[in-house]
Amino acid sequence: MRRLFPLALLLGLALAQIGRPVEALQKALGPLPPGAKVEVEAKGGRLLSATYRGPENASFLARFLEKGTGMPFGQAFLDWYAKNKEALKGRRLTLNLGEDFLLELYPSPFQARLLPRSVPESAFGQDRLVLGQKGPFLRVFSDFQCPYCQRLAREVLPALKARAQEGELRLSYRHFPLTEIHPEALPAAHASECAQEQGAFWPYHDLLMAGRLGDYLGLARALGLDQEAFARCLQSPEVRKRVEEERALALRLGLRGTPTVFAGPYKVPNPFDLAQVLDYLELAR
Predict the structure, then answer these.
(1) For residue 176, how many other CB atoms are within 10 A of its CB?
(2) Separation of alpha carbons 166 and 135, rounded Å
(3) Domain ranges of the chain
(4) How far is 46 from 4, CA to CA, in rounded Å?
């Protein structure tokens, strides 16, 4: 997973409270400051957002962020608040908490709203490479040469594919080849589209994610695909254009690395954690 902040921020931490049962946040916060209250927005009994209303209390807000996200944002927030608290006076601010959460701050009366980062589902356009026929969409923006994408395909996608085949969700693959660092990413994506032309995207996807890059005709042969049709497809500028358009979409959405996963409109903080992916899918129902 290519990111501009340490991978350790995403791995080995407690599950984010967002997406989990509402009661988990209420228990984790403990006593509130005098005159304060926390209101939650739930969806299907799961936490979608939380709003603190009351006196400005930086130390409690730091705890609010850490318990609400399951990530160590507290000290970074305290450092920011010490330098910028004057900017709050009379202004509404929206802070980015990493790439996965937002904090909205409102003045007079003071309130702070924590919510997951989301994208309107209409912004994704048409989903074409889909496994499953019903349920919320799980969109995986991925790169066949990315080792973290290969890890996701190896460790997490098998369970999700099984659930998709049982009708619990729709698993949608979205191309985001990181051409600046992965020379085989675009050719592999193009080849996967050629497999799709013959109804074999997901088996071909699995071979590519096993690290079998380069001999794209050989992979098609291994799956029993029509070799001549596949070879013609590999030369098709129209097929290459499909991949490039999806890459352009990922960049317009502000995505910065792979794999990036959305459950419905909600960006999943740690797609390597199957339990968290399933929590977010519940939010997306």
Answers:
(1) 27
(2) 10
(3) 22-116, 122-284
(4) 30
How many other CB atoms are found less than 10 A from the CB of residue 200? 19
Q: What angle do CA 49, 33, 25 make, to 5 degrees?
A: 30
Side chain identity at 155, as an amino acid letter? E
- pTM, to two decimals: 0.90
Q: What distance in Å separates the CA atoms of residue 268 and residue 148, rounded to the nearest whole number?
A: 15
Q: Tell which CATH classification among 3.30.200.20, 3.30.360.10, 3.30.710.10, 3.40.30.10 matches the domain 122-284.
A: 3.40.30.10
Q: What is the mean pLDDT of each run of 10 residues along the chain (285 residues)?
A: 30 61 86 94 92 95 95 95 84 92 92 96 97 97 98 98 97 97 98 98 98 97 98 97 97 96 97 95 95
Query: First CA to last CA across the chain, in angstroms?
Result: 26
Chain center to CA of 135: 17
Q: Where do we find the tokens 């912004």?
A: 123
- Measured from the Cβ of residue 276, the count of other Cβ atoms closer than 10 Å reads 21
Two tokens, residue 259: 């794999």
Spatial contact of 13 and 275, defined as CB atoms under 8 Å apart: no
